[in-house]
Amino acid sequence: MTDILTRNDAVNLEHVAGSSGIVLGANQYGKAEVRVVKVTRDTNRHEIEDLNVTSQLRGDFAGAHLDGDNAHVVATDTQKNTIFAFARDGVGSPEQFLLRLADHFTGSFDWVTGGRWLAESYAWERIVAHGEQHDHAFVRSGQEVRTAAVIADGDERHVIAGLKDLTVLKTTRSGFEGYPRDRYTTLPETADRILATSVSTRWRYVPGAEVGYNAVYDSVKAILLEAFTENYSAALQTTLFEMGQAALVAHPELAEIRFSMPNKHHFVVDLEPFGLDNPNEVFYASDRSYGLIEASVEREGVTSPAEVWASLGAFC
Ligand SMILES: O=c1[nH]c(=O)c2[nH]c(=O)[nH]c2[nH]1
Fold first, then answer.
1. Domain co-membership, 134 together with 207
2. Which InterPro entries match (predicted)?
3. Is the CB of 292 under 6 A from ligand 1?
4. What is the 228 CA–ligand 1 centroid distance (Å)?
5. Does one domain contain both 99 and 207?
6. Is the ipTM of this complex over 0.90?
């Protein structure tokens, strides 16, 4: 072999690699963050669905990586166009929309054996003008971003719903005590503090469950918020578990639920230098560093598919 690889030699790396024991590992590819807005305008009262969709295919793409052969490469541009074309029929729910994409790509191309489809959806509400909800003017709403994911592997479909950036706070009925103290511990114990977090959560549906995705989403969100208010919080960890438990108890179609919750610390400001007391009324809202509490709440005896969660990237 010559010392200098030409560009074509590099494209044919498989042959070089094959002899050097280097092989292609896991791969997926597609179009990320397709911003699609669907307006339904059958009547004067328009409806809006606003999504950010990512499509990535898995399967036999060795040719493209190793031989410069694109015969199997469904172009990312085609994947983007498919998302827009499917939106023409309406979205329905982000989960249904992603399932439709998964079925389409795995059903249309033999070598596409699975993939990963993600969506964020953004809520809009009607502007109230002259005391009436407007027919076609909207204001962005939503305290959170709704998320959905479909992971397809052969005929298997894992449907994962969730939300992020749901910021909640309670001004009392939270504390943090009884933790170990060592030479580096300075944090004072307290039985009365602000508890604040920005909830990121994803829940996995029981495979094959018949689910009204939009209704279950609304219900789970309401249950999580209620559980946050319910009990005295001995730690954010305790509250996280109670939130997950409440969702699983109410919804048998949920197999498990995961959370990633930053502890958004609010420190009581020392006002003594100004001759003032501070009975838990004035706080410094610190944006970093922050505690980061992550956990999965599961059903006893139900195995969690680690590879499905891993393919979503972060903890949840
Ligand atoms: O709810 C809490 N959990 C912790 O693990 C922790 N650690 C800490 O310093 N403050 C808190 N608060």
1. no
2. Uricase (IPR002042), Uricase_CS (IPR019842)
3. no
4. 16
5. no
6. yes
